[in-house]
């Protein structure tokens, strides 16, 4: 379970900023939105608000970048770079490494793992564990080398096998280190996806719909949301070049035929009732999901795979722009799956960015679950939660209208819109 995520000197994040999933001393939604992990009381979800280009997507990207480096750095050759972009709007930061750190709880143990890196190499790396209250180091890496502590026997004699652009943790994992395997397993359940380009995630939905145990769960979810269809099914068939759109450029069509010839094409179809002239059900008709259903329905079905994957096995899901193309009630339905004991028995966690202020009005989030991002005058992103925000030195009351306050700019993190009437007048004068 995620306790904290910290990022610094990465994209719009100049200084280190931390998103915490530890509960604060507030009382709302304790039975639904919180869970116990050892001695920790953690949040099941967190929502991030902010203006366009304020850093919401960069926070989710920081999470996915850290995950990617942990799971993939061992596969890189010694000459490949790590594709990291530091904060570029103040001189000196372009030469400093980016900072990533997670604090998480698994198997009755708290781990703190992190690293500093630029595009060329890993500059620092560390792993600490705390089985009770005291944290002890397992290994610490810096410019002088890698120090492996006595408690981390699995890391011994592997220091020299670690390339400058590879993480030591991943090297130890390749040699079957038990603790490294545990940490890597946690990162494997830390999934970050985009709510804008969601087409690639439907493979997870296919897999769940082909599983006899998970298929009824997905079908029940779709039915409860009243998406307009009665059933959904997978259709598999061999690629047929005659079904390609007639208006495709010839070069594109030739390439598709070359790439897909003889391969199995998988698609989803939805089943609808067909009515007679006197409005009686006379038959069923199937629709192609991609071409005949709405963009919102396509998105919801595509991301339902990752959502229910995480709910089924536990873990952490981060979604950028969850609300894009979705009705506010559908966005709320996804968040309710996580803020629930019935639908979230493994205590999976959800972090998502959104512009949907209706979620604040529904009163389904605690004050410590609501985060804001805002850029300062120098282009650097700040990150703070609603429970941290003070008004006249006092915490915002739980009975306030969070949506109304946010729209009015009380908490910051909204776009500054200048005098549009003046702009329109000048344009009309031209």
What does this 3D model show about the protein?
The strands form five sheets. The protein has a seven-stranded antiparallel β-sheet with strand order 2-1-6-7-8-9-10. A six-stranded mixed β-sheet has the order 11-15-16-5-17-18, sandwiched between helices. Strands 12-13-14 form a three-stranded antiparallel β-sheet. The chain has helices at about 30-35, 55-70, 170-175, 180-190, 200-210, 215-225, 250-260, 290, 295-315, 330-340, 360, 400-405, 420-430, and strands spanning about 1-10, 15-20, 35, 40-45, 45-50, 100-105, 110-115, 120-130, 135-140, 145-150, 190-195, 230-240, 265-275, 280-290, 315-320, 350-355, 370-375, 380-385, 390, 395. It has about 425 residues and is α+β, with helices and mostly antiparallel strands. It folds into two domains: about 1-190 and about 315-405, Rossmann fold (3-Layer(aba) Sandwich), CATH 3.40.50; about 200-300, no CATH class.
What are the main properties of this structure?
single chain, 430 residues, alpha+beta, Rossmann fold, 2 domains, 7-stranded antiparallel β-sheet, 6-stranded mixed β-sheet, 13 helices
Q: What is the CATH top level name of the largest domain?
A: Alpha Beta
Q: Could you say what the CATH topology of the largest domain is called?
A: Rossmann fold
Helix content: 25-40%
Mean pLDDT: 87
- End-to-end separation in angstroms reads 58 Å
Structural class label = alpha+beta
Molecular shape: globular
Strand order of the largest sheet: 2-1-6-7-8-9-10
Number of strands: 20
> Proportion of β residues?
25-35%
User: Uncertain segments of ≥5 residues (pLDDT<50)?
Assistant: none
Number of helices: 13
Any guess at the CATH architecture of the largest domain? 3-Layer(aba) Sandwich
Taking all Cα atoms into account, the compactness measure Rg is 24 Å
Q: What count of structural domains?
A: 2
